[in-house]
Amino acid sequence: MDMNGEQRIEARREAVWAALNDPEVLKQCIPGCESIVKTSDTEMEAASTLKVGPIKASFKGKVTLSEIDPPNGYRISGEGAGGMAGHAKGGAKVTLEADGDATILHYEVKAEVGGKLAQLGSRLIDVTAKKLAGEFFEKFGKVVAPEPEPVAAEEPSAEGEAKEKKGWLGGLFGKSTAALILALGLAMPTCCLDGSHHAAGEILFPICAALR
Predict the structure, then answer these.
(1) Please, what's the largest Cα pairwise distance for the chain?
(2) pLDDT truncated to tens, each residue of the chain (212 aa)?
(3) Residues 79 and 110: beta-carbon distance below 8 Å
(4) Distance separating alpha carbons of residues 17 and 71, to the nearest angstrom
């Protein structure tokens, strides 16, 4: 199976390179990954569970990094056994290209599968591989370059609300109706003055409704 492609990641090349060498980041992003342990600067051991068509298998294997050229890229190769389901081995050439504050990740993958997995046919395996690659890059992009949190709108202060209400009343009634407002205030039920609520179904004075 051969698969080539590229992915734009909204993070600087140095950050992408660091993430590609961080076992915790890889564990979060690799679909089905259960564990990944860095045993040396160039080797890691990994365990994962994947489903390819009707076959679900747990793989354990060793991953080796070579042709390391920070922060430009490396070659990754590995082999894993999935018991009766079969086995897989292969490698990928990963190249990082700076694009302003973003990074273009280029990859060239070559892989072979054996056992029951090989009996599923190359078309199903290719579709599954592309799906897994898409899931990896989606998670990887979110981990390396998380979306900024939305800025919460500032709540108006009590003083600002009071000024707004005052301005609203002044604009609505005008200075010439101040006496009418005072008269309505005197005739207003005490609920509107002390802030208590009307009972359900109780008739509201228009001024009460406006001030609620």
Answers:
(1) 94
(2) 788 899 999 999 999 999 999 999 999 999 999 999 999 999 999 999 988 888 888 889 999 999 999 999 999 998 888 888 888 888 999 999 999 999 999 999 988 888 888 888 888 888 888 888 889 988 998 999 876 666 555 655 555 555 544 444 444 444 433 343 334 444 444 444 444 554 544 444 444 444 44
(3) no
(4) 6
Q: What is the pTM of this model?
A: 0.65
Bridge partners of 106, per DSSP, are 6, 95
The one-letter code for the residue type at 36 is I
What's the first-to-final CA gap in the chain, in angstroms? 69
Give the list of residues 6+ apart from residue 163 with CB closer than 8 angstroms, or none: none
Cα–Cα distances (Å) from 179 to 91, 183, 190, in that order, read 87, 6, 19
Cα-flanking dihedrals φ and ψ of residue 209, to 5°? -65, -35
Question: Which tokens belong to 113?
Answer: 């599968």
